[in-house]
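Q: I have 197 residues here and want to know how they pack in 3D. Can you give me a structure?
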Amino acid sequence: MKFTIKVINAISQAAIWHKDQVRKDFEETPYIAHPFSVMLTLLEFTNDEDVLIASLFHDVLEDVNLKLAEIIEKEYGSKVIKIVKALSEDKDPEKQTDAKATWRSRKLGYLEHLKLAPKEVLLISCADKLDNYHTLANTIENYGFNIALKNFNAPLKDQLWFADEIIEIFKNRLHGHPLVNRLSQIINHIKILSNTH
């Protein structure tokens, strides 16, 4: 696909919004690598401009600022902001909360929402989790579990519980989609790693 001006603008905008953030990997990779990777994964399966833009913004509301919803809707349209809101956990990055204490309730809410979400939301969520679990697996292999999980808000057993729950939803709703198969493989790989350490 040839990137449209709108997608190119969204890439730049996402980079600006995430400019002060890093990933939870050992190298502290600039955060923009994640939404960009999610978008590139989705390019294999869709040319829908709104889906690609929403994938770039999928963490903006929960990790940067809820107020950016107005800008997203104004600049990129109602479909994009609906998808982004559907992908966002129930948290306000401007408010101080105990992320570890609220982790399970936020994940349960996210799971319930996915059970009824449109296909576009499911595809972005699946690509998002695929990139997250790939990063986790690579960090485990290179640095071990202690370093890989030190910045996470839940222990490995809880992370794997969430992985099992979300993969079941994707299997039921996306019916053999290649992204689901890839996600299932990387989750199984992490489980194998956890049994060998």
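Q: Anything worth noting?
A: DSSP finds eleven helices and no strands in the chain. The mean pLDDT is 91.
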